[in-house]
Structures are given as structure tokens and as C-alpha cells.
Amino acid sequence: MYIQNQQEASMGYGGIVVWGLALMWCVLASQDGVGVAMEEEERLSGLGHDYGEALGKAILFFEGQRSGKLPSTQRVKWRGDSALSDGMPENVKLSGGYYDAGDNVKFGWPMAFSVSLLSWGAVEYSREISSALEQQLTYLLQAIRWGADFILRAHTSSTTLYTQVGDGSNDHRCWERPEDMDTPRTLYKINSTSPGSEAAAEAAAALSAASIAFKGVDSNYSAKLLSRSKLTSTEDLTKLLALSTALTQVIRDELLWAAAWLYKASGESRYLNYVSRNQGWSQAVTEFSWDNKFVGAQTLLAKEFFSGKKELGKFKSEADSFVCALMPGSSSVQIRTTPGGLLYTRDSNNLQYVTASSMVLFIYSRTLAAAQIGGVQCGSAHFPTSQIRAFAKSQVDYILGNNPKKMSYMLGYGSKYPMQLHHRGASIPSIHALPDKVGCNQGYSSWYSSSKPNPNTHVGAIVGGPNSDDQFSDDRSDYSHTEPSTYTNAAFVCSVAALIQKTKEEFLMNITTDMVGVVGYT
After folding, report:
1. Entry pTM
2. 141 — phi, psi (to 5°)?
3. Is residue 422 annotated as a catalytic residue, yes or no?
């Protein structure tokens, strides 16, 4: 999809590119211009970090979160089969999918969001990933498929979607490996009498996004994800959107997000008409998360705006507002950074907001560059696309070790990283090493309370992160800062993929776009 857009853009601004390259040559001929170019190359090259390694480990994390029967190709060897009977009380097959975080519950809503983000990354950066790390694209698609398959199984009829397996309260009272757990696997679902538009909309978004990711890889599976059959139909899922008794602001972000992905996947104008007709719901926001999708929808629809759909201008303006709310130096900045430079939205699992925000900044700056827009104007401050990218990159680098603690917040990356991940499976010896059952209370007394490092390193897991003063306590009991989550890693996969490779052509285009912004061309 990106290649097609690049070709269309190239045909549309050929004259501007020639002018831009000439201007760039003149600028680079000066000492200051050379400095700009070298600074840009340094920003894009990522000296000091192996982004390919970080990408691979961020994807590997999802294999450690798998539920169900593990395949023979499983690379995380300390895990085993688990929760094989999920769904049996209601005679449905709900094995598989992902455990949400450090517990053993499968939450369908954030799981679907994770699938949406992974799919967006595969769609946006497939060329970069495959050109440099072809096998990683295969692993990424496998991660998407593992989650998408669960959503398909959970959608058991046109008006029924299972949204959760396991009871959070009972699960959290025990500290057990997934392979041992004997807590109730309570089932929760939405249907015509018990609606849940947020979960339904996210499921629709996930299947739609995944169908695009697989379109050029497995056309049959892609078609299956978009088919209108009883079990797999995203069309049926959209019917659930109308089941909510009150269309409140709480769910409107999911409706716009789902409709945007349905349009991109199907090309059907009714979905575009839906977002256009309801764009009054959209609002400027300061975060992107599983519970707030507005800027995700705005970023997707801003791309449509730049392709000629001028009726979507409100979404573009609000995407700009998101940039202004985050960029240091903006007159309308709302999310501050820690002394070490990390975006700080809130204390509990702050890195989920950092990775998601960085993801949006990378994708939106890319969209602006492709449209030959020099950057974003925030009051008196102008932020070129290169500066937006550089700030997003600084967030990735902080996570990987460029921070006051000089530690990586991704397990297995670098020489110093957290050792007491808040994660049941990782904190108890593997079932292959300790085959005897570890019970609910034994897990707490013997392993949760242990001061020793976890016996299993959950490679690729990104923890909740430091506090507002860049301080971090490697303490298993501090779940707000040491627990990982699928959605944190999913957003990071997209963010780090943006840094994998910049071709010479893209480098020249970025410089040209920034120079266009300097002289005031829009």
C-alpha cells in the first residue's frame, strides 16, 4: 500500500521534487546545509542501537504470551500448552489468543487492539521490515494471525462475540503459571441483549487491518477475514455497533476507528460516508491507547484527506493537534516529559502511552512527508517532519537505554534490563524444568515474594517503565512499573519498524520536504 501511495505521490509532484532537489543541493552546498544533512543522517541511522534486534525481540514477546496449544515452531521454550479447554462451559472453542499482560486472563478488547496495531505496522512498514529482516515479517504476520484467529473463533454468530476468558479478581488472587492455572475460566460475551460496542468495534478494526496485512501474502486468509460469512464477517460485527443503548462519547472513538479500517480494507464508500457523517464526534486528544482511539482514526483519515477527500479536513486538523500536544516547545503542549526526556502521560504503565504516541508520530510524519507537507504549525512554533520523527525516535531510544538509569526497559536487549518482571509464567521455573504443579498460594510464597531474578527471561517484554523523575525500582510486586502488556509491545513494534531502514530515496525526500517547510511552501 505504501509503494502504491509513493508512486501516486511521485506522479503528482514531479515538478516540486525537481525544484526541491535543486533547493536541497544549494542548501547542502553551504556549511550549514551540510550540518543539517549530517544531523539528519545521524538521527535516522540510530547509532548505538540495533533496531533490527529490538524489532525481533519485540515480536518474540508475543510467543511468550500465547495461550492454547503451542505449535512445533514455538521459539519461547520455557512456555507450554495452556488453557486448552477455554470455552467448554458454553460449548465453544476459545483456546488460543494472548494473555493480556502478566496475568492469565484473555481480554478480547485490548487483545484486538494489539492485533490492530501489529497489523498497522505490517501494512505501513512491510517494505522496510522485509527488505532488511525478511524473516521478521513472517514472525510479525504469525503474531497477527495468532490473535486474529482467536477473534474469529470468539465471533460465534452474527450478534455474539466472546470478549473475555477468565475472571480478573480470581486470577489475581493466585500466582500460577498458565500451564498450571486452575482458577475459573469464566466467559464473558456481548450479544443483542448485552451489547458492547467498544469490543465489537475493535474486533472489526482488528480483522479489517489484518486482512490488509495478509492481502499480498495469503489471499485466502485475507478474504476470510473480510468475508461476510456467519463466523468471520466484519460486516456482521458492524451490526453490533448499533446495539448500544446509548451512543456516548465513550464509544465514539471505537466507532470511527473501526469504520476507518473497514473502509481501508473493503473500499466501500458507506464506511467513508459513516466517518464523514459523524466526524463531529471526533475530538483533539493527547493520548492513543486501547481505551482512546481518536488519534488513530484521525491519522488514518488524514491520509485520506491528503489523497483528495477534502471533506475529512477535521481529522487532519486534530491529528495536527495531537502533535502539538506532545512536542516539547509547542505553545499548546499538554503532555510533559520527564527530566530525561520521556513522555509522561500517567504513572501506571506509562510506556504503553509512549510507544503508542511514538507510533502515531512516526506514521503521521510519514504521511505528511508523502504529501509534501513540511511539518505541523503549533502556534508560533513550526515542527518540520524531521523534528517530529526525531522526537519519536528519542522515545524509542529512551526505552532501549538512552535514559538516566542507562538501562533498557526491554528485557533481553542490552546489558542491563529489569530482572523481576511482574509476570506469572516468567517468574516461576518453566514447567519443563519443574514439572510438578505450582499451586495458587505456593506461587505467591515461593516465587512472587522472591528477591531473586526471574528464572525465565521474557525476551522482548517492555515493562511499565520509570516514574516521572526517571526513577525505576526493579520490584516484581510493583506491577505499575514492572508489568508488560501486549498493547505496549504492539505499538513498539510499529515504532521501531519505522527506524529499521531509510533508503537514500526516502532520505532525500525527507530533506526536500523539510526544506519546503522552511521556505513556507505548503
Report:
1. 0.87
2. -65, -35
3. yes
